[in-house]
């Protein structure tokens, strides 16, 4: 298996940068936020809940309550970052949730005994929220003379065989396809590209 290593030296360029992290107040997102402000970055952590008390104690951190399934809240997130710092350098689309529906053995029935439509919550957060975050990142970072970068965090479960328990496993494939199309679009439209 190919190994991808990130050294501390390769991260020194993040000092003084403005970085938005969705899903930044727990799990991998919170650990990333802590690393970023230890490197001197200004970080806007977007999440539904504030980070646990005592986990983030830096003046370089701003919490912004954001539901990534709501477009207007994502727009508000980017506008807040620009209001505070004048621009956005990097965006980490990290918000995500685990399975909420079992498409094989767990379909619910309504009062008439008819199948109820399964929740689309996983799709809304992991796919729609990620695509909308990426769309806004590209829009706002185009306003920077130096551009910026977009990182999309995705689950490795998308590389496993689909067992129809939840559509969450196919989402990394959808996200990758969308990013490939955005790469082509960015390059054609503006003369610079993105990488995935």
UniProtKB/TrEMBL annotation:
The keyword Oxidoreductase applies. Keywords: Oxidoreductase. GO terms for molecular function: oxidoreductase activity. Transmembrane segments: none annotated. InterPro entries: NAD(P)-bd_dom_sf (IPR036291), SDR_fam (IPR002347). The keyword Oxidoreductase applies. Pfam families: adh_short (PF00106). Belongs to the short-chain dehydrogenases/reductases (SDR) family. This is Uncharacterized protein. It comes from Xylaria arbuscula.
């Amino acid at each position: 298996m190919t190994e991808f290593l990130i050294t501390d030296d390769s991260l020194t360029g993040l000092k003084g940068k403005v970085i938005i992290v969705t899903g930044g107040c727990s799990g991998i997102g919170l650990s990333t936020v802590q690393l970023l402000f230890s490197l001197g970055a200004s970080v806007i952590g977007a999440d539904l809940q504030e980070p646990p008390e005592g986990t983030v104690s830096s003046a370089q951190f701003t919490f912004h309550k954001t539901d990534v399934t709501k477009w207007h809240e994502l727009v508000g997130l980017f506008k807040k970052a620009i209001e505070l710092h004048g621009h956005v350098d990097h965006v980490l689309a990290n918000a995500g949730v685990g399975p909420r529906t079992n498409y094989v053995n767990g379909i619910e029935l309504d009062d008439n005994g008819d199948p109820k439509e399964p929740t689309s919550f996983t799709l809304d957060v992991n796919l729609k929220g990620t695509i909308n975050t990426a769309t806004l990142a590209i829009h706002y970072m185009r306003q920077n003379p130096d551009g910026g970068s977009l990182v999309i965090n995705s689950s490795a479960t998308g590389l496993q065989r689909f067992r129809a328990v939840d559509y969450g496993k196919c989402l990394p494939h959808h996200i990758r396809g969308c990013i490939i199309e955005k790469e082509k679009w960015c390059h054609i439209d503006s003369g610079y590209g993105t990488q995935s």
